[in-house]
């Protein structure tokens, strides 16, 4: 099976417990390499500059087309304290160019403005299954390049699945957590995922399914959402079962956190994800909404 991933590669400086670590990342890398764990072929639509080690993508057998830029790679300074993190944009690469591709699913996960609303519209025309993580559509920078979230009336028609946290959801719709999930569903989304730290909820039709990740010490949280999204997307495409997709996604996030590794090294192997997924499958709670 094949997945098309749209998002920027990045070079991140991660400040963790007072120490700086420079890591390659971005949703393109996290989502793409996670999909490879599920034996998906990956077509990556991204942009990176001459300072990006593209051999890392090649070694992971990820296809990238027309991705190289003369401008430097998108770069963030990320400061992490527990489950909280702050971002500062240090450099922004070129927008991503769209090209039609024959794949089983599309995963759209911008990190900062690299995908325009027109590009999203073009992706929708070609997509059989479209998963959107809207974080990069919502991010804005201030005069010091500090990142915050701003309201965005993103068009979610023809989107099959979305993943948001409460802060992101509030930039698109209003209300309590349940009301926001329903409002996103009314905008056209079939599977609405709301992640609130260790609590993960999935709205399908009129039911909410939820799992709780074990509350353990948290290390580097960078890319956890991307690992979660890619796992959900790949499992849905392979198994056509949203409950297994929820459990696999939660299992991937948990395995990545438990690894205590930095950057891309935290992407878990499929075996670790499967073990966690089986555990969560027996603990899924559900309620009518």
Contiguous low-pLDDT stretches (5 residues minimum) are none
Total beta strands: 16
Please report the first level of CATH classification, the CATH class.
Alpha Beta
At the third CATH level, what is the topology name?
UDP-N-acetylmuramoyl-L-alanine:D-glutamate ligase
Taking the alpha carbons of the first and last residues, their distance comes to: 34 Å
Strand content: 25-35%
The coarse silhouette is: globular
* Helix count from the secondary structure assignment: 9
Return the average pLDDT rounded to an integer: 94
Class of secondary structure makeup: alpha/beta
Oligomer: single chain
Computed CA radius of gyration, to the nearest angstrom? 17 Å
Specify the helix fraction band.
Answer: 25-40%
**For the record, what is the CATH homologous superfamily label?**
Ribokinase
Brief descriptors of the model:
289 residues, alpha/beta, UDP-N-acetylmuramoyl-L-alanine:D-glutamate ligase, ten-stranded mixed beta sheet, four-stranded mixed beta sheet, 31% helix, globular
How does this model look, in words?
With 289 residues, the chain is of the alpha/beta class. The chain has one domain: UDP-N-acetylmuramoyl-L-alanine:D-glutamate ligase. The protein has nine helices and 16 strands. The two termini are 34 Å apart. The model has no long low-confidence stretch (mean pLDDT 94).
